[in-house]
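New here. Invent one.

***
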Amino acid sequence: MTDHSLKADAETGRLVSDLAYLLGTTKKRILAEAVAAYAAPRLPASRERRPFLDLPVRQRLILRRDELLRAFEAHGASDVRLIGPFAAGEDVDLVEILAETDIMMGGDAVDVLAGVAREILATRVEVTSATAAAFSDPEFLKRLRAESTPL
């Protein structure tokens, strides 16, 4: 995707910058969400809308990718990657995720992150902690990373 600049008056530019800073996100994300919120009630009623749960899991992930990454980041996770058959492009209902987790959360991190992802994607999710795997089985982690794709 190619980014293009958007011109705004100085006051609007400051407001967007301040919001991005306060919300811990990007100016691009602030504008995207503002445009979506503005457009939603104005779209023609005749336009076909598919309920989120009717969409294939892969489409749900595409639609909610940024939200999922922000939620993981809020829980101290980083380097979020897809693993397993879903990452390989297979049409399965289980999303397997590999993520660096906050060492202070210990073993609870994978349960918390899986719960967050299940809520956002409305499907089965398993999370593997790259942090824990680095300690317990570095070769397994190396294999997982080689087969993974960045989210």
Remarks:
- The mean pLDDT is 87.
- The first strand starts at residue 78 and ends at 83.
- The beta strands are 78-83, 94-100, 124-129, 149-150.
- The helical segments are 10-23, 27-39, 57-74, 84-87, 108-121, 130-136, 138-147.
